Amino acid sequence: MNKNRNNETMMQYFEWYLPNDGLWWKRCAAKAENLSALGITQVWLPPAYKGTSQEDVGYSVYDMYDLGEFDQKGTIRTKYGTREEYLEAIRAFHAAGIRVFGDIVLNHRMGGDELEEIRAVTDNPENRCEQIGDERTIRAWSRFTFPGRNGKYSRFVWDRRHFSGTDWDEDTQEAGNIYRFAGKTWAPETDPENGNFDYLMGMNVDTANPEVVRENEKWLNWYLNETGIDGLRLDAVKHIRFPFYRDLLKSVRENGHPELPAVGEYWSGDLQRLTYYLDSVDNEMSLFDVALHYNIYNASQAGPDYDLRTILDGTLVRERPENAVTFVDNHDTQHGQSLQSFVEDWFKPLAYALVLLREEGVPCVFYSDYYGNPVKNRPMVPNLGKLIKLRRFYAYGEQEDAFAEAQLIGWVRRGDEEHEGSGLAVVLSNGEVGSIRMNMGRRFAGEAFYDVLGNCTEETVIDEEGYGDFRTEGGSVAVWVRKDAFENLIVNE
Questions:
Q1: Longest dimension (CA), the chain
Q2: Could you count the other beta carbons within 10 Å of the beta carbon of residue 485?
Q3: In the chain, what is the straight-line distance between the N-terminal and C-terminal CA atoms, in Å?
Q4: Which of residues 339, 362, 393 is at a domain's end?
Q5: Integer angstrom CA distances of residue 21 from 55, 74, 381
Q6: Residue 186, SS3 per DSSP
Q7: Which pLDDT belongs to residue 2?
Q8: 57: phi then psi, degrees, rounded to nearest 5
Q9: Residues 128 and 67 reside in one and the same domain
Q10: Which residue is catalytic, options 191, 206, 265, 284?
Q11: 126 is catalytic
């Protein structure tokens, strides 16, 4: 544990259903100080470059050098605003002491400017290792000339040589096919789902092409220098040749950005796949703990039938805590998305206590959990602001678990000298009302503890051996802190 500095907490500062009003970067700048006061130390912002349309969330990548500066795809600004507004938002976060993570998507391109004739074969979408159609000529939108930018920042032109496949033939216009270009193979070092999961969407970037490698290195160095962002969120890493990001990150760190942190999205609940990937990239990044997300989701679905003692089993945060970024939900798990697995409302306070108040991993709070989502009629998570502040001020020191009962678990953090008033006890129940006797330590003897979340109104006093009886209501969570901490959190709520 990092005893001599404050806990890190990331917030994913966007969600899928934001309005297309071009004001997002301005909203970010306006909220920077509030987030810092709350205890947020890092923000993950959405992809900032031009997509296929102004409405694009940022994952249909067109021109990564266009941060809302050029008239392309019918718009100058992106969904979120202009280039200068983006840079101003980053400056505002920095002024508030918050590090900024930029979201980058390097495995596909969409919205090409010109058609090219390409010889290709058809592969089985369910098993990309199986060819199901003979070689023939297709026409694909594979040439990207970026006429609106007219060569500013980079004169690189993408064409069929830089891609390995697509899902669209302009001649037949039949949906559902996957075309692999003649003379190309899917990258062998990708996730084994569907036989090989190199191909995801659009024009699939050939990351083994030396020109592609050089251009991506050039772009990433330009992006870091141009924006001053502090870290990277790497999209869809399981669809990209595994050595690609290992080599790219090493190169960028050796050329001016030695401390650049990165967190990858490898969407799999299989711990072995996550750890295999980390080993393959020489642990050059962290990963979002998708395995933990699914445990949390399953617990929210099962209610009292879920054994809470197992909620950390098979997770990255238990196996590789130094590489784990924990989360409850994100933009991909929202209702209506392809990876929909949104955690039930009743369980979210329990889930956030689990990711925010434990020693292991760096937690990532989801924007719409904190603010609510009126578009989808989703409420804000109760007490989430308090839980973030609890992490910021009080979740320090030695941790001891009390995972003895299937429907009732807890743990203590015994505090440290560097954080005044630190130390807390947490109790989660997915069943009935319950109480756990836990050892806070003898230095707390005689002190009264209070549930700052308001589920339990009576105090508990630590005995001379350091033990206290910590209670919670059924299907709920209680977080117990000392009187001074309790009063500070209530007054500053």
A1: 81
A2: 24
A3: 27
A4: 393
A5: 9, 15, 26
A6: coil
A7: 41
A8: -65, -25
A9: no
A10: 265
A11: no
Dist CA 132 CA 421 (whole Å): 66
- State the Cα–Cα distance between residues 472 and 433, nearest whole angstrom: 6
Name the catalytic one among 235, 329, 360, 369: 235
Euclidean distance between CA atoms 400 and 378, whole angstroms: 34
For residues 232 and 288, state if they share a domain: yes
| Cα–Cα distance, 242 to 474 (Å, whole number) | 45
What digits encode the pLDDT tens for the residues 280-310? 999 999 999 999 999 999 999 999 999 999 9
- Total domains in the chain come to 3
Q: Are residues 383 and 421 in the same domain?
A: no
Is 265 designated active site?
yes
**Rounded to the nearest 5°, which phi and psi values hold at 389?**
-65, -35
Q: What is the CATH number of the domain that holds 482?
A: 2.60.40.1180
- Say if residue 81 is in the same domain as residue 197: no
Task: Specify whether the CB–CB gap between 279 and 316 falls below 8 A.
Answer: no
Q: What is the pLDDT of residues 228-279, one digit of tens each?
A: 999 999 999 999 999 999 999 999 999 999 999 999 999 999 999 999 999 9
Residue 4 belongs to some domain of the structure: no
353 and 443 share one domain: no
The CATH number assigned to the domain holding 260 equals 3.20.20.80
Is 3 within a domain? Answer: no
* pLDDT beneath 70: ranges in the chain: 1-4, 491-493
Range of the domain at 245: 10-105+211-393
User: What tens digit of pLDDT does each residue of 101-130 get?
Assistant: 999 999 999 999 999 999 999 999 999 999
- 224 and 362 assigned to the same domain: yes
What token pair was written down for 389? Answer: 């502040």
Burial of 451-480, coded b for 16+ CB within 10 Å and e otherwise, reads: bbbebbeeebebbeebbbebbbbebbbbbb
| pTM listed for this prediction | 0.96
- Same-domain status, 249 and 367: yes
Please report the pLDDT score of residue 491 as a whole number: 58
229 and 95 in a common domain: yes
